Known about the structure:
Elements: H1 9-20, H2 50-65, H3 70-76, E1 79-83, E2 86-91, H4 95-107, E3 111-115, E4 122-127, H5 129-141, H6 143-149
Antiparallel strand pairs: 1-2, 3-4
Helix pairs in contact: 1-2, 1-5, 2-4, 3-4
Amino acid sequence: xxxxxxxxxxxxxxxxxxxxxxxxxxxxxxxxxxxxxxxxxxxxxxxxxxxxxxxxxxxxxxxxxxxxxxxxxxxxxxxxxxxxxxxxxxxxxxxxxxxxxxxxxxxxxxxxxxxxxxxxxxxxxxxxxxxxxxxxxxxxxxxxxxxxxxxxxxxx
Length: 156
């Protein structure tokens, strides 16, 4: 069975976009049309469905790097900040976007919070069994596309 580890990110995210667009709890907020995705950006995204694409990318990152929280997720979507004549420095992405998407994925039942053994400290978000099932089913369904685009994948 193909898992999400076997499929390249671009193909897996495209497959997840199709599945997540049917989920009702994952919807673009009204402010999303005007917001930048971080301080390192000059303009808002050009794509109409960028919220669903970002949600799919966040779900994939939770699968690979979980437990992961809002701050670490914002750093994952950051980039170099242009400081004029001074050297560029790293800038985090929008924490509000990361937090809102994580909340929407939690409401849909795809991710959940992981706590320490005492149940007092939230370690971050991890996939639920339903989230694992969704992401692995998508990976299995796009395997042929991945093998066409990357012929070396058929060896694995």
